[in-house]
Design brief:
5 helices; 254 residues; alpha+beta; two-stranded antiparallel ribbon
């Protein structure tokens, strides 16, 4: 069964063509070139539409010119600011150096000569000093020896002493006696006696005493160190005070 042409269902393309042309779709419209149909279609809006964006170039040119001017001005500004900062710092540095030189010329000589002079004089006093002290000694000494005794001494008898078989010689005008006899020495008799013997000694002897000490520093090893320090600072001391004198009145710089 066939459907009449006027009742046939139209395709979407036919309806779209009918909307654009506001005329019924017929065979003549179907026979139009496709290029005309495509040309009558609404164009898609976007960056490809050059006619709609035609006013934009002037604005973009102005913005690009402004950005170009900013990019040129900022480096120039920072360069100028850096030059000014460096110049100010140099001026301040010169002023500071000038002030320090002015103060140094006033006080450097006095401070230097006073400091070096004090060091040199004190080193000289140290070299001339003496070490004086009393050293307490508390100790014990062990003795283990034999002490020989050889001497002549006088003794007094505390009681009567009997000497048996002593040879007695008595010579008088009447008789002569020379024989052995027992002799009694009464108490209180004084006799000279020769002593010759050894005394053993084994004991601990405590010692408690103060030993006085008086040592000149010039006679010790410190003398060389002190004179070396004096020789080290002498050149600077002579620059600051060429007419300086030692404690004994001898010129230091000679």
């Amino acid at each position: 069964m066939t459907i009449p042409d006027d009742k046939q269902k139209k395709s979407p393309a036919d309806r779209f063509h009918q909307i654009l042309s506001s005329t019924p779709v017929d065979k003549e419209t179907d026979q139009r070139p496709k290029s005309e149909v495509i040309a009558r279609l609404p164009k898609k809006a976007g960056p490809s539409d050059s006619s709609a964006e035609s006013p934009a170039p002037p604005a973009s040119d102005a913005q690009s010119g402004l950005r170009l001017n900013k990019s040129k001005l900022l480096p120039a500004f920072w360069t100028f600011a850096s030059i000014v900062s460096i110049a100010v710092n140099i001026v301040l540095l010169i002023v500071l150096i000038t002030v320090l030189r002015g103060l140094g010329s006033v006080n450097a000589t006095g401070i230097g000569s006073g400091l070096l002079g004090g060091l040199y004089t004190n080193f000289e006093r140290m070299d001339q000093a003496r070490i004086r002290a009393n050293i307490p000694v508390q100790d014990s000494i062990a003795l283990n020896m034999d002490i020989p005794v050889q001497t002549t001494t006088g003794i007094t008898l505390a009681q009567d002493v009997v000497i048996p078989n002593a040879r007695v010689k008595i010579s008088t005008a009447a008789f002569n006696i020379d024989s052995l006899a027992n002799v009694t020495l009464p108490a209180g008799t004084f006799l000279n006696v020769n002593l010759n013997f050894s005394v053993p000694v084994k004991t601990q002897v405590p010692i408690t005493l103060n030993v006085p000490v008086d040592i000149p520093v010039q006679e010790t090893e410190l003398h060389q160190a002190i004179t070396g320090l004096q020789a080290t600072i002498r050149p600077l001391y002579c620059i600051m005070a060429p007419t300086a004198l030692s404690l004994s009145g001898v010129p230091v710089c000679r």
